[in-house]
Every structure is written in structure tokens, then in C-alpha cells.
Amino acid sequence: MTQTNNTSLLDFYNLMLEAERAGVKVLGELLSQTEDRNLLDLLKKFLRDEGLNCRILIALIHDLGAEPSDRTGDFVDKVLALDSLNEQIDLLIRGQEWVARKIRESRHLLPAGSPHLFMEAIKVQHEENVGTLNIYFKKH
Known about the structure:
With 140 residues, this protein is mainly α. The chain is built from five helices and no strands. It has a single domain (3-139), classed as Up-down Bundle (Ferritin). Helix content is 78%, strand content 0%. It is elongated and about 50 Å long. The termini are far apart.
């Protein structure tokens, strides 16, 4: 892998790490705002997944011989600025879609093997989260 590709891959991993950290914070806040048992269960699952994704991304960054960013994406402030839980969940859905899209757009950067598989799993997880939340809110 060339230095340029390595830098681009590192930048991508850090962008995703910052987004996943933001997801952890957002989900933690949303959990404190709802009493709906079914929604709580969904959000707890998503929170566990986002936390695991952070650990995977940190490992991938370390595999490149680099230190992970310590930043968190600005998504947290955008979600928390909204007035209602429904608006916040709607933005969460769009955030999940954004992560999946960024991974699709950056596949060309990913080395074969585990890094590719990990990122593909994260993409699929986010796509499934979007579908699950859309179905949940159509029922309620």
C-alpha cells in the first residue's frame, strides 16, 4: 500500500471512529429520554454495536501503526439540539445511512481480508439499523 493510500485509509478509519463515538453518545442520550421498552431494547443493541465498532476501528488504526483520533463527530450536538425524540431518531436514522454510504464510497481504500470484512459488517449493521428503526416507527 502506498503512503497516500495508507494516509487516506487512516483518515477514513478516523472519520468512521469519530462517527461511531458520536453514535455512542447520541444513543446514550436517547436511552435516557424514552420509556418505551421496545425502543429501549433497540437502542441498547445499537449502543453495544457502536461501542464494538469503536474497538474494531481503533484496532484497525493501530494495525496501520497509528494512533486513533480522540475526537467525536459533531453529530451529537446536531441531534441534541432537536426538540423531540422523534426528530432525534429521524436524524439518527440519517446518521446511520451516512455511515453506510461512506463505507460504500470508500471500499476502494480497504485492504482485502479482515479490514474489508469488518467494514462491510459495520455497513450492513448500519443498514439493518435504518431498516429496523423505519419499521418500528411505521408501527408506532
